Amino acid sequence: WHTQLQLAFFCYNNTVHMAPGFEPSYLFLGRKLRAPNDLFFGTTSTEYYRNQGHYANEQYWKMREVYGNVATKLQRQQRMLKKYYDRSTHITKYKVGDHVAMYMPLPPSTLPNRKFKSILRTLFVIKKIISDHNYLIEHQQTRKCKVVHHDLLRYV
After folding, report:
1. What is the pTM of this model?
2. Potential cystine with 130: which of 83, 134, 146, 153 (Cβ 3.0-4.6 Å)?
3. Per-residue H/E/C for the chain
4. Sequence-separated (6 or more) residues with CB below 8 Å from residue 89
5. Over the stretch 76-98, which tens digit does the pLDDT of each residue have?
6. Does residue 133 contact residue 149 with C-beta atoms inside 8 Å?
7. 132 phi and psi, to 5 degrees?
8. What is the pLDDT of residues 46-68, one digit of tens each?
């Protein structure tokens, strides 16, 4: 397989990727990579430059436009993936007065029997809804309050 690795990398770098809409080699080098058959049959490139300064200027403006397009496409892709992720998640809504358990990882000093101990601590009551994600909870015995994220809470 190690003999085919260079070909696999070449194919990967010369393939248009979905998120940016360009080949990685084009984004990195500013041009498409040439395959061996391009050298044998001749290239189709018609880009000719007067001098190095002209080439550098053309590359600068071309890559500036490409990177602007990539940024726009990546933002669009991020919004699409967020929308897809949000469809599969849900937030448990708690009400004031609900009894909940809070996730509290055990300290490392309890390693021998840590596997069989509960990591959910009970005896908490929702005192205030701060936002859709954050709640003020109160321990029923100690009366200490703390703000926690909804991911740490479970109904008892």
Report:
1. 0.50
2. 134
3. CCCCHHHHHHHHHCCCCCCCCCCHHHHHHCCCCCCHHHHHHCCCCCCCCCCHHHHHHHHHHHHHHHHHHHHHHHHHHHHHHHHHHHHHCCCCCCCCCCEEEEECCCCHHHCCCHHHCCCEEEEEEEEEECCCCEEEEEECCCCCEEEEEHHHEEEC
4. none
5. 999 998 888 777 777 788 999 99
6. yes
7. -65, -25
8. 667 788 888 889 889 999 999 99
Burial class (CB in 10 A: 0-12, 13-18, 19+), 124: buried
Q: Give the β-pairing of 120-129 and 145-149.
A: unpaired
> Ramachandran region of residue 98, left (φ > 0), alpha (ψ -120 to 50) or beta?
beta
CB 101 within 8 A of CB 153: yes
Q: How far is CA 71 from CA 26, 67, 135, in A?
A: 15, 6, 36
Distances (CA, A) of 65 to 14, 51, 70, 79: 20, 22, 9, 22
Contact assessment for residue 126 and residue 94, using Cβ atoms and an 8 Å cutoff: yes
Residue in the block written with tokens 């509960």:
118
